[in-house]
Structure formats: C-alpha cells, structure tokens
Amino acid sequence: MRFPSLLRLTAAAAFLLTVAYANQPVSAAEGAVTIPPPAMDRVNGEGTQTAVLAGGCFWGVQGVFQHTKGVVSAVSGYAGGAKNTAEYETVGTGRTGHAESVQIKFDPTQISFGKLLQIYFSVVHDPTQLNRQGPDTGTQYRSTIFVVNDEQQKVAEAYIDQLNAAKVYPKPIVTTIETGKIFFPAEDYHQDYLTLHPYQPYIAYNDIPKVENLKRMFADTYRDKPVLVRDAKATN
Known about the structure:
This protein is of the alpha+beta class. It has one domain (4-235): Peptide methionine sulphoxide reductase MsrA (Peptide Methionine Sulfoxide Reductase, Chain A). It is 35% helix and 17% strand. The protein contains 8 helices and 8 strands. Strands 7-6-1-3-2-8 form a 6-stranded mixed β-sheet. A two-stranded antiparallel sheet has the order 4-5. Helix 5 links the parallel strand 6 and strand 7 (176-179). Helix 1 (11-22) packs across helix 7 (201-217) and helix 2 crosses helix 4 (113-124). It is globular. The chain starts with 10 loop residues before the first helix and ends with a helix.
C-alpha cells in the first residue's frame, strides 16, 4: 500500500527513507523474467494505436513504457469501472471495478502490440499474482489487458496460452482480458511520477528496478529520455 503522506517528501527525506528500504529483503521488489516474444503478433497498421494495460501501481507501469521506443505517450489512469468513480481515493477502496492502468499510444511501425505485451509480462509486473503486485493488494492492482479491438484480444489470448504452455513462470498466469472498458486519466500529480520522484522510497525500491530491467533485457527497445505527459501538455 502506498501512503499519500509520502507523495510530497523532500528529496533529502526521501533519500533517507530509501536507505531504510535498502535494508529490507530483496524479495520485496519484483524481479524480471526472460520470456519469448509472442508467436502471434500485430506487426502492421497505420497511425498511432492504443493499448491499455494494468499491472499494479500505475507509477511503475507508466515509467517503464515512457522509456520504451515507439511509445508516443503513456498516461496513468483508471479502467474497468464507471466515470464517476475514476478518482484515486475511491478506486483505492477496491470496490469500483477500476484497475490502476496506463493508456499507451504507440507507433506500430516502431513497436508492435505483441512487443508491448512481452515487456509487460517480462519486466513490468508479475502476471501470476492475483489481485496484487508487490506490496499493493486489492482488485485495483489486478493484472489486466483492456483490449481495444478483436485483434488485440486474439494476440493477448494466444500469448498467455503460449507462456503458460512454455511454463516460463512457476505458477499459471492470472492476467485477465477485459473488453469494452473506458480509460480515464488519473489526477495530474500521478503523471510522470517515477521521473519526478526517483528518490521516493516506493519508487526507488519497487519501480526504478523495472526501468533498469527494461534497459538490460530490452536494450534495443529502451530509450534513456522518457516521453512525459507534462511535455505533451506543454506543446498543446
């Protein structure tokens, strides 16, 4: 669980807490798993396309995809529930149907939907954890692919079957596929959170390692300068 009181820590205070976190067991941070690419993939298409993925706290999910080549934008938000409950404190009750999610706009000539899923299943989160990720628990942290069309659904279903058959994880994948759900952007203070608060203890311990794993395991796909929500707003 993340504590709102930690969201506005000074860099110095956050650093001290990060040192304290460093003394915690290494198993508390999620690891990465080397997995094969999807046998079925969406490798063509024109114009910017959209994917919506949920895999625990949206800070880390957004941070990873902001460092992924071919991603035009990555916005933290909520999907799975109604518009009037798409608000952080309400979603945090776990009773809204929403999951903390990230809407990813991507250029299909640079990266495919299947490649996004490979990163999602490999370094973003542990798809075998049911209704939780790391220290966060509740249905709002579930592993879900909110597909936007039939083709995405086919690719996602086939990839989950492929990974389960290959037994790349010690337990079955529990990731769900949900259709027809609307994405709602989260509050401004949640956007670009990993980049703006790298020393915040939760980020430093749980999420920075995910970006480092992206750089190490998907070097050809990694970009050092993230694509940020604030930059997009500044140009509009």
